[in-house]
Design goal:
CATH topology: Rossmann fold
Oligomer: single chain
Shape: globular
Number of strands: 7
Number of helices: 8
InterPro entries: P-loop_NTPase
Strand order of the largest sheet: 2-3-1-5-6
CATH superfamily: P-loop containing nucleotide triphosphate hydrolases
Protein name: AAA family ATPase
Structural class: alpha/beta
Length: 219
């Protein structure tokens, strides 16, 4: 048994399996599944998503994540394990890929998860997305044009790489739960003893990225 309650996050592009795996992992860990966009942010989230300012959208999601981080820390302090479907890595990597120019330094007090980067063959990922009933937003469509940039930005974060291609959710869950992890409190995540390819570290500072995606307005 770990000395401290587990905190685990699932990261990755749309269609890689995050929303399916998150409740399954929470159940397997007997953990609380915490929404990283709390309900009080949902109306404003929809309003901001209808606009084109990528920095405004990034700041909204960062605010939601900091609010969620307080709830996560409360559970961990009480000895309750936590699972989230994406955390700061997704927000920073995605908005960086979309051209956000903000330099963000994450504070040291943030709860630090063991993170699993779900990846999938793009043909299979697109088939999964086509089967969804939920319509894609304008931002979803923009992100699909810069998936390579999102993947590059994710390389700033230490994560266990888990390939979901051709695997059932139960099989992916077994890969995750069989991974021998040790939480590194000096980084946002951990990657020691992983049996899958780790991603690089140093997430605390993401510098300004002077590039913009078509459709995302400069401030």
């Amino acid at each position: 048994m770990p000395d401290h309650p587990r905190f685990e996050s699932l990261e990755g592009l749309r269609g890689t399996g995050k929303s399916t795996l998150a409740p399954m992992l929470a159940a397997a860990r007997q953990a609380v599944l915490v929404a990283t966009v709390p309900s009080l942010y949902q109306p404003l989230r929809h309003a901001v998503d209808e606009r084109t300012n990528v920095e405004a959208r990034m700041c909204l999601y960062l605010s939601a994540l900091f609010t969620a981080a307080e709830e996560i820390q409360h559970h961990l302090d009480a000895g309750v394990p936590v699972v989230v479907e994406s955390y700061f890595a997704r927000c920073l990597a995605t908005h960086r890929a979309l051209g956000a120019r903000l330099g963000i330094t994450l504070p040291s007090w943030l709860p630090k998860p063991v993170t699993y980067h779900l990846v999938c063959d793009d043909n299979e990922r697109q088939r999964r997305l086509a089967r969804r009933n939920k319509p894609a937003s304008r931002w979803d469509a923009l992100i699909e044009t810069v998936t390579h940039r999102v993947t590059d930005a994710y390389a700033s974060f230490p994560m266990h790489r888990v390939d979901t291609t051709g695997r059932s959710p139960d099989e992916v869950l077994r890969v995750i739960t069989d991974t021998d992890t040790q939480t590194d409190t000096d980084t946002l995540g951990a990657h020691s003893h992983a049996d899958t390819e780790p991603v690089e570290a140093h997430p605390h500072l993401l510098p300004a990225v002077p590039r913009h995606v078509a459709g995302a307005r400069r401030p």
